[in-house]
Hints:
This protein is an alpha+beta fold and 300 residues long. The chain contains 9 helices and 6 strands; from the N terminus they run αααβαααβααβαβββ. The protein has 2 domains: 17-236, no CATH class; 250-300, no CATH class. α1 (11-62) packs antiparallel against α2 and α2 (67-77) packs across α3 (88-105). The longest helix is centred in the N-terminal third of the chain and has 52 residues, at 11-62.
Amino acid sequence: MKKICHRRPGRRRMLGSAMIEFAVVGPLLVLLGTLVLQYALMFNAKNMVNHAGFMAAREGSVAHANLASARQAYARALVPLYGGGRSGTELAQALARAHADVALNTRIELLNPIRESYDDWSDPALSSRYGGRRAIPNANLGFRDARSIGASSGQNIQDANLIKLKITHGYELRVPLASTVMQFMMRWNDTGRDPFVTALYTQRRIPLVTHVTLQMQSDPVESDVTVSMPGQGNNGNPTDPGMPVNPPIQPPNCITAGCTVIVDPTLPPGGGGAPGGGTGTPPLYGCPPGDPNCSPLCEG
Length: 300
């Protein structure tokens, strides 16, 4: 006897609806996946840029705040980001790529010491050692009076011996689709105030910014890239600003180790008349373990 198979009614309609649903949801899933991948790569690059920024500041701290030396150290620390290598030749090629990219798409700014730091703390005796350029002494900082503030910079000599770098690294977006979407969003949100950042956006790059501050390990020497920031420390006259008009809210006083029971700082110490019935300021959340007289203000 011949067996007759009957198809379920509506099976083709179900298959057709599944294809339509995938056609709608599929592109969104692909876009989401590429965005996650691009963000992961960018997050890894940001970690490398942070490390390279530290290496640049460390080099600058021992090289008299020389920005060229800091830039060289920054490029060397970014060799893994540009391919790395397992041989001297491969490492040299990666270093060359890093130098080329850093030269075109990275901006390193020396934010401290500033020109006013040299106005206040340069030592004329050191100028002859550094070719007539002004220099700030780095020796014996622990024995120098930190309360002495320079009139032009608003800094003491310890502050003047800090190297501060701001690094803006143009990271190239490489993941298809996600890079196009991110570039469109960045260019749409660009204010145009920084031409360097605007140029990065047009090249499908995103600025990764890192700030580094380290103690100088050599005498800071003034250079052509030293910036001027007049008016430091209340226009050169640092004063005690005093307490704010509205005092800040005090942090909670934790009763338990895990801060599961805290004291309300806005209520005065009570006793029998205070809410909670216990002595002192009543708890705001919870009650101390084993306190039969405590009734919490609110349960949380």
